[in-house]
Batch of 4 targets.
Target 1
Amino acid sequence: MSAPSMIESSLRSHREGSVLVVVNHDPETRNALTPAFYTGFRKLLEAAGNDSSIAAIVLTGAGDFFCSGGNLTVLKARTTMKESQRREGIDKLHGMIAAMRACPKPVIAAIEGGAAGAGVSLALACDMIVAARDAYVSLAYVRIGLTPDGGATAFLARSLPRQLVSELCLTGDRIGVQRLYELGLINRLTDANDALTTALELAQRLAKGPAGAMARIKRLVDSGAGNPLAEQLELEAQSMAASFGTAEGAEGIAAFLEKRKANFPPASNGDAKDQTGDA
């Protein structure tokens, strides 16, 4: 394990081999989000996407809670601002969420305790979610007269029945992750204090896979929820044709035919980026 680096006061990272572990580190506020975090994490994601030595990312929170959402002191200050000023912080949040989806590397959330408000959006923007069984999620915006942001309604509407999305958003009640696991929103459940370990194991497994293919898969998964069938079939055709022309594809097929474990080549910066056009 490499020594942790500090990007800004509440954002820390360290390496576990080819896995980058990112920690939202502000336990006094249960890791509340700030504009500085939005900017810092976005920069980190963009750098990781171009770093061929990083194959996967795990995101977690310090202490016993994943993320409590927006800092209410910061949110209160926005009530007296002009609308254009209020949009600045929201746009930074949304820029970070977009960067998470654009990052070609798999991103896995490790949740202890729970996720609230924009912390739920942060977890949903990850490719997979590992959570301790006693954790919960809460979109309590409505309780303070606000509405969800960070892509929460988009991610949830693509994954859960409308009635449950309405319950989450209209009541602000805590929903246990066991219920969400049974509905497929959570990938793995663990004992308390084991979420990070399990997320790391999952990330290290993905890190051994074909980086270029996984980058293309991320794009296909995102587009598949909304594209008409004809458009998605075209994107799948482009991705498959491109994949056949890569060293990854050649090694994967050869390994299968030879009944051995594939030894995928290290990713280049070009492989890690989404390539659905010419190989």
Target 2
Amino acid sequence: MIGKEKWMQIRGLSNAEIEGLSISEIARQTGHDRKTVRKYLLSEEAPKYGSTPRISKLAPYKDYINFRLKEVPEITAQRILREIKEKGYQGSRSILGEYIKPLRDEQTQEAVMRFETMPGEQSQTDWSYFATIEECGVRRKLYCFSMVLGFSRVMYIEFTTSMDIFSFLDCHQNAFSYFGGYTREILYDNPKTVVIARCGSNIQWNAKFVEFSGFYGFKPRLCRLYRAQTKGKVERPFQYIWQDFYIGTRFDGIADLNQQAIDWLNNIANRRVHGTTREIPFERLPKENLLPLQDRRFDTCYVCARKASADCYISYKGNRYMVPPQYSRKTLTVRDDREKIRIYADGKQDPVFFYTLFKGRGKDIADPALQAEIKVNQRERWHSFKDSFIALAPSAPDYWEGFLSSAEMRGKWWELRKILSLCEKHSPEETDYAFKRALHYQAFGYKYIERILDNVKATREGGATQMSEILAGLISAKEIPEVEKRPLTEYDLFADL
């Protein structure tokens, strides 16, 4: 087989045949067989070559693949591969991927019809990551919450450093207050704060969110998976917020940023002529016909349990907060409204103490009056403990002083508590003997007193036996004969040998 260039060369040389150039000469110059030369001299069309059509291994399954992509657009290629293999497909995953990719691109590029809602019918909500900020020496991510009313396009935004369920619901209520009401349904893009898991029409809702939506009586709606166009009213404004408000704005903390955001909403964002409605959002707001708030608010406080330490502190979000001394080593309940934390004890309706929430980390936070109360309480407990210890035995005061002056035991006051608990199980005589023995050897500490008292107990019960008695018993038990005793002078005879 020859290409078009060779065919053109042979056809050109054929004109030389008139001048005496034979087919054999053309074959010699071109390097082809004479039959090939004769064939292409007679052909007036360029040679055309075609491959034998091959049937793709995927061909029998294309109708099924198209059906599955239309039925469940978010289905993965791996899952389709598994399904068609069960039907007999023997090809590779790459062939399937090459076939699916243009179909997915076609789905994402399909025309989208704008969906307009009736007054008061729907609002849309979403989060967006914006930047990082530093609060009290801690670097945090900054998020922007946005809610847009579908009919009027009135917008509310709020910046937070958390996307948890409590911040999410709190932002909702602040938006409701800003609008003066709320819509009959709210559209969401499947966040974990709304839906825990979803498989088609089977949805596992977030329990706290269900309580919230039931409290206000609005209907939550979810976007189709991987279909952001469904909530374009709230998706598109984030770029507008970034460019028109956030960039270049100087603020002193997140509270100042949110106040500036409200001013921007009131004076600029909601007073401009909207690009879609061609009307001012605030002027359309009275027509929204929102559901009234009825002067009620859902409790969005974060609630958890914390156990107080021996020094009367509870740990919460990287800091320690002091509690009254009577709650040392007890489990308490903490309620956090993101401004203050309130600490509750079992059986009490009012908080036992409250603090302004500290935004940083690694700090012990205590009220001065509470510190003074704890110091007085600790002093009283120390004197009471000292009196109980000294009353153990006549030598207890000397042991107390020796223990506190010992360099080895300095600061280990809990050793004294262990000694007190141990000595209360013995008589004053035994305790006095143990203290005197310890003072004699300057052996301070729980383990020494415990060892002395164990020996005393063993002796009292007949358990302590002298070593000579043990050896005598062994000798008698084995019936070892006595060795004849000789004068030492007899051994002097061996010196002369």
Target 3
Amino acid sequence: MAVLFCTSGVPLLTLALVHWAYGVQISAYHPLINDEVAYWHQVSTFTHAGFSGGYYTLEEATNPSGFTPFGPHGPGFIVLYGLVGSIADWHRHSVVILNLIALGCAGWIWATCARLTLTRLWLSAALLCTFWATLYWAATGMQESFHHAGAIVMAALFARMLSTPGSKPTAIAGSIILVALAITRPTWLILMPLWAVALLRHSSFRRLCVGVAAALAVAALVLVLYSKMTAPFSTGFFFLKVMSFSVGIQSVIDNLTFNVNRTLSVSDYRPLEILLRVQYWTFLVVVFALVMREVWKRSNWRSAPAIHLALGGSAMVTALGLMLLLYTLTNQAEFRVLSAFLLFGALVTLAAPGRTPAIVVALLLVSNIATIRTFVDEFEAGHRDHFIWDRRGVFELDDALSGHVAYHTNRPRWCNTLLTAQYPPYLIAVPPGIGLSVVREPDRVAMPPRSRYLLLDPPSLTEFKAPLNVKAMATLPYGTLYENLDAHCEPDPRGK
């Protein structure tokens, strides 16, 4: 029963919450946030056209490698979900179903691989079912559920490696999964040196240092690979700018100052975001106090439970530190990114022997249970538009595109790309294979635009550096659909 709750608790609770709050099934879901629409449509394109679909860019700026057509967040999430979508077909709610499957499988891996006592297995089941960030994002098309699942799996592998040192299958599995996670979101690079410590904790200090250095080298290589596969944009990810030395130390200091001021403010954040902040700061203070106590008692940080606490706390504090230095703390940034590391740290702590680590996790669980009402209210308000929505906008755009916009195989990617100045959720009606290139600053686009199709409102149309050579095809409430005659995309003679 404990394993069953670890496996099915989050998926069943998500389904129940959606039905209770809105009276609909999960199939009523539609992508709403810009990132959700972008992820969903990129996966749709991958399932239909693989890497041959149109471009997903900002201001038509493509990634340096030219291998993938996908957007600023890279191809990792798109390819992983798209491979499943290629087998099972891709529907409007498929992303939520895959989220629930990923979380269920991760819970099963944790329950069967972490080697917990029955009491701790039940405690972990309760924690998974009340970790509000996991439940909140499971009902969306954002990447967060995939990363929460990754946090659970990596916690299980850390716990297994720490309990059975030298396990080659665990070492190989953990290394492969960690690289896949890091290519999807670079924050997982944080775990690479910690994974090396877990693998080599019984080795000599010299060998341990060599292993950590090798892990850092692999992390740097993965980061370079990630940067080559992401579409650039005018502002750019701050951490990539820092890594490429395109900004100075003063910019890093200014960013840190801004972020620290944001963390000291609560007026701009929702209750669940504030709760998470309190939880991870409290977790860090308590865990590192316990690590110092254990090291003082045993004079050995490599023994349990000190090693569990040190690795779990180090992952959380490194993620927080790098986020303050190299990221911009906007609303929900912590709730999305740092929640996975708090979940990872809590589970690794729970796997540590002794009563004290279990008490730490139990306190985290109590704070979750005490805020059930807050979570339910925020879930109901935050996801209403995901499940109760007017479908006429999708039908209207589908009618406007019909007969005008379609994916053509064996054509240049720009001939299968729609440049749009507006980003309504109705863009899910754009046929799969057609890339969505967003233009926020038309004056940054090299003239003439390369995209074959344009969806522009009147103000955007006048902001390009030169007049456009276009033919109007349809008018919508948020813009006019044009064919870009300067794209020189001749009709496919085969009609494909």
Target 4
Amino acid sequence: MRILQVEDEPAAARMLAKGLREQGYAVDTAHDGAEATYKVAINQYDLIILDIVLRGQDGFSICRDLRSTGFSSPILMLTARDAVDDRVRGLDVGADDYLTKPFDYLELLARVRALLRRRPSPYVDVIEVGDLRVDIKARTVTRCNRNIDLTAKEYTILEYLASRKGQLVSREDLSEHAWDENFDPFSNLIEVYILRLRKKIDVTHTIKLLRTRRGEGYMLTAEPHAPAFDD
């Protein structure tokens, strides 16, 4: 999942981004409304974490502007303001949730997970691909009822492929959702992670679920007759 945080304090932005990345999220940062609007126009974000108190345009007007452009992914507002009027105003301009600073990091993660479950796209708690089971809520993966240990990034990639099961996912699409704006499109990171995932979920099984179509992308499927895929 790819998150945009809008925060003008560099230290706070670095700390929050680091924590989210450790959970497997791809994180971009914008420091003001103009940068946030630009990044939303050129990237696909599953969630925005928006500070209200910013230099220049405040979070309320940024949120209103984003909604006016048709941006429909969840927006979580962060602020030091605890007044009821501010919380109501934030929700009225289009925010989905509101968290007051200082906040507990575990609560922030819980709210992020809850908001991602409310995305406009269809969402389920568990995705099954053949005998592979991806539990979105618990962030666990099993195959034939045996646990598969994945790193945060491996899980992020597998979850996205599982959410698109049976569909060809291009390299560009995968990088958009699993990496942030610093991803080097000429690196071989995607191929490295796909190889690692294949070893963990497929190597001991006769039926291979993770398929590659050379030069086009990847598919997670239990369909044995998926056309023109390489092992």
